Amino acid sequence: MDINIQGTTNFQWLNENWDKGKMFILEGSTRSSKTISIVQKLILVALTNPGIVIRCVRADGTTHKESTIADMDFVLGPEMFNLKYDHHYKKNIQNKKYKFINKSTITFSATNDPQKLHGMKQNILWLNEIMEIPLASYRQLAQRTSDKIILDFNPSYNHHWVFNHIGCNNKPLEGKYYKHSTYKDNQFLSPEQVAIIEQADPSKPENVKNGTANAFHWDVYGLGKRGRVEGAVFNQWESTEFWPDDPRNSIRWGLGLDFGFSVDPTAIVECVIHPSPRGLYLRERLYEKNILVSKNYTQPNLKSIEGELKKMDYPQDLLIIADGAQPESIMQLRTSGFNITGVKKGKNSILTGINIMKKFKIYVHEESENLKIEMEHYRWKIQNHKDKDPQLKPEPVDDFNHLIDAARYWRMMNVGDMRHLMPTSQAGSNQMMRKPRVKSRVRQR
Predict the structure, then answer these.
(1) Global pTM value
(2) How far is 287 from 340, CA to CA, in rounded Å?
């Protein structure tokens, strides 16, 4: 078998540490050869370990074709390993599965179908673009992996579960190995490819003149740094481990709910206005796609908002503020016994809600991984200089905003008198969990 390996520093690093490590974390810029190097190593492992099961997982299975599978075919092909189809391996296009002559397999799967995660078992797990994969999915897959785990990502987020739960350290730690790389570690890039990457470098006057300079893109995709998003809507927020022992003693307490299903996740956030340190405290409670509103009695195993709220075991009269554009869903939950009402969304309601949220410093509970990502990446639309109009109001991009929208709904219905920062337990409880009356609702502008 004539195999020609042209490896970058990432491949060499994987090769040198493979027998010593249990987890390998590759962080770096675009074109740093992370994916190709991982594919090279995994094919070698498959060829030399009969019957081994290797699985590559992305958040969305439809993206494999143009990314990981394309790299797989390239590495197997004549320009690199030169393996012969039907002799060294076979490929099942429908199942995205490669089977080698020694019965080893490499399969490409996705996390956007949570039910299938429970059946995925493998010796080696490769999580490609880990920033797009939820922590719950990682946990399901990791506990079904017997040998090694590989993670790779572009550092497009500053806050992510991978930093807290796995860590990124350049020294071996409990079998974990970490490597940072940039496009400069890939000696096989053409001058044209390098020029495209470097046109975002804001330190070059010609890039500024040509309008291609972009500090965030350069930091993340050029230098492989963790950069802050330009134009973030929320700047005054921080992660905290604090949460009130008894939220009923706070100024306000309740839940915000943003409905979703297949495209957008359903999001529930617990909201507290607390006197010390004074601020708006937010804690993610639900962030999941394909979840029903009410329990399906013919298929009781299907997840529902009703079922998840009951698991949370909040007081029955705790007020839930939801998206008023879905009255039927609100009525289903109200029929199930929840104290829920909808917020009215009118002209400029998004800007109004954002401004109301900003009246307090925002504290995000440290375990609220998806909420931290949203807070970091929810940004204003960038207007062209020639289209600038002093009468034109800012508008946020409609993305990274599901938990934020849930918090915004709650905050818009909790804008009453805040001058008394230390209410008694009884007064606070009555204020936070009162049944809504239509006539007393806050009018949205």
Answers:
(1) 0.70
(2) 19
